[in-house]
Inverse folding.
């Protein structure tokens, strides 16, 4: 079984959310078998900055679904959206 890398766009609830703390909470929320392979930040608008973690997960049924659900439940997260996905 291979692995899949996906860049996920995580939008904070507002511009006042501490992105470093949010990044830590995202890392702690990862389901078993998933890992984060780096973060980027994207200036969206009006001081709002999205986090763009690249997540590596096993290539199996469900793909990034468990990671998306875990990230959605993290305090300070407004929305989660999968961007680029590719096999490793």
């Amino acid at each position: 079984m291979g692995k899949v890398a996906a860049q996920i766009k995580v939008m904070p609830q507002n511009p006042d959310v501490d992105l470093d703390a949010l990044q830590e909470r995202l890392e702690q929320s990862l389901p078993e078998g998933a890992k984060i392979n780096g973060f980027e930040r994207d200036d969206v608008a009006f001081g709002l900055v999205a986090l763009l973690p690249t997540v590596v997960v096993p290539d199996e049924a469900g793909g990034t679904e468990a990671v998306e659900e875990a990230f959605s439940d993290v305090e300070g997260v407004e929305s989660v959206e999968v961007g680029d996905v590719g096999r490793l």
Q: What stands out?
A: The chain is about 20% helix and 50% strand.
